[in-house]
Amino acid sequence: MSADADTLPRVTAATADVTPPRPFLREHWPWLAAILIAVVMPWFFFNWSTGRHSGFVLTMLSEIGLMTIFALSFNMQMGHTGLLSFGHAILFGLGGYCTAHALNAIKDGGLWLPTELVPLVGGVGGLFFGILFGYLATKQRATAFAMITMGMGELVAAAALMFMGFFGGEGGVSTNRVTGVSLLGASYSSSWQVYYLIVVWVVICVVLMRLQTMTPLGRMANACRDNFERAQFVGYDPRMVRFYQFMLSGFFAGIAGGLYAILYEIVTFDTVAAPKSATALLATYIGGAGGFFGPILGTILVVLLQSGVSLLSNAWLLYVGVLFIIMVMFAPGGIVGLIGAHAPIARIGRLRELAVPYIRVLIPGLFTMLGVVALVELASFTTIGASQGKKLAVGGLAVDTATALPWIVAAAALLLGGFWLRREAAAFRRRWDALMDEAKAQGAAV
Amino acid sequence: MSDVAISLKSVRKSFGATEIIRGVDLDIPKGQRHAIIGPNGAGKTTLFNLISGRFPVTSGTIALNGTPISGLAPHEINRRGLSRSFQITSIFPRMTVFENIRCGLLWARGYRYSFWHLLGRQKSLNEQSERLLERLNLGARRNLPAGLLSYAEQRALEVGITIAGGADVVLLDEPTAGMSHSETDYAVSLIRSVTEGKTLLMVEHDMSVIFGLADVITVLVYGEVIASDVPSRIRANKAVQEAYLGTEAA
Ligand SMILES: Nc1ncnc2c1ncn2[C@@H]1O[C@H](COP(=O)(O)OP(=O)(O)OP(=O)(O)O)[C@@H](O)[C@H]1O
Ligand SMILES: [Mg+2]
Description:
Chain B: Residues 6-247 form the ABC transporter domain. The complex is a heterodimer. In chain A, 70% of the residues lie in helices and 2% in strands.
């Protein structure tokens, strides 16, 4: 599990840092496009007749933003340093608690800090706890490290319910982001202001974390991940590399936690708990830990599932789990790895030949998926749904989960789709392998 | 300051009950090119592991430039100017060839754990890495993940990472093993030029490499030094011929 060192060698870092400089726009347009999309996105959901933003969409986008920082900070440890942490949320949550207390202090007049800079309190908190916990955890690597972080996660989660003063017990710490102190004169009473504040912080953090991969520490983190013993013999103490990397990762996780406190105006025990840590792990793994972009894609997907699908289905967590298992089994490089695998074929200009094979697996794939979803939903509606008094409806048509027909249809879709998918998948693989061989023969494989 | 680069005093090493290094005394003066030869399993690599701090000694002392280094961690020994290569290639397979070399340079150039220097902007560092890459004949491979290099190229990179930092004492463990004749010739001339004025301790099986490079040869058999002398006299040494060269030549 430790950073899949046994898979094929992969270059994880941009080699761009030493090739001749390209024009800023040509090199960075995907980033600029992403920022642009982030800025205009809320306006697609703007209700022009009432003149109001969609609160749901803004909250979801804000969540994507802060979770992006969180997942990337997690990947500073996992993807870049080969450290699998099961307790990363403690850095996030503790940063959040610090921020909530700071906001309350600002409100009381005991502290002066503009709201725009309040996330820094979370960052400093995360840094502090990163130093504290990192000092202990980074003495070990690999499995021992994972176990220690898991223990720390449990420890903090337990402490959160015990130490009322700092954690506020079960109820958590409530706060109010409208402190009246702002550099820009914004009140942050409406959620679009908060969203844009988060966007700015996401941009800052993403840029900083990206640049960090191009520093001596960032490179040596990769080196220690790949071969910690060799790193020692070029003068580096792998333990210190892990420690600094953990510490910095805590800083960014803390900023994410700070933004969380500002967004929700309450920080509770679940910000430090294991499911939060798992979310970072899921997002990173689904998106791809090998590259820098992976966790961003993974976060978008996971939060959409979390916020979007959870409205439609009680079983959303199950879908995330299934997706995770599928990714681990069939695409250990995550979405980014999947996309990257096409590069050799793209280089010989024959990507188009995959279109038909793709469509041919997608159709049975869709069938199989519908079968799975239908079964899951039927099951969840007979159990949880029934107790909530909900009724299953497909396209406005009520479905009676007590009759056999829907179950039979769903099972048939799953079985037939699965059978069909297997055949098409084999054909797809043959086509893929042939194209790959062709690419190798033309020397485009690397 | 003493003029002995590496000094071993009755060094012993046991793995469990078996004693692999059985009391080695050895002084290697500064600036000397020193070869260690011996049959397979004699303990040559183990001796390197002891000197470079990879394993602790069971007893005895090792000094580098007059100061004891037994008990220090490998990175601390490296920072005192001793660098080593590995018999079993040990590189950073997922990083590019260029970055492998640059990693070898970072600490020596004083970058430490910096997270505020952008490597792309470190002109002199990058140029130095580039120059070394050219000398290693790996210039054309610079952007390839090191794990995809051919075996001989990985060997060259292994040596490159070791010498990149400009350590004063260089330990090379079978640097030319697995290389073709021309590759070996090139590697020997490269090693000779980069270790100019430095202390070199190398393990080799290729006799032409040893007799071409070494000022002094030490013969290690079953964890004991049976001879340590200039090449011509080692060649003539009866005990050495029996224990090692004879079997090799037969
Ligand atoms: N970590 C270890 N644990 C146990 N035994 C070891 C260890 N390292 C080496 N040995 C043993 O020590 C002996 C000497 O090994 P070493 O690698 O030093 O030999 P060598 O002289 O380098 O041989 P070669 O010419 O094959 O490289 C061998 O018998 C080996 O099995
Ligand atoms: Mg050996």
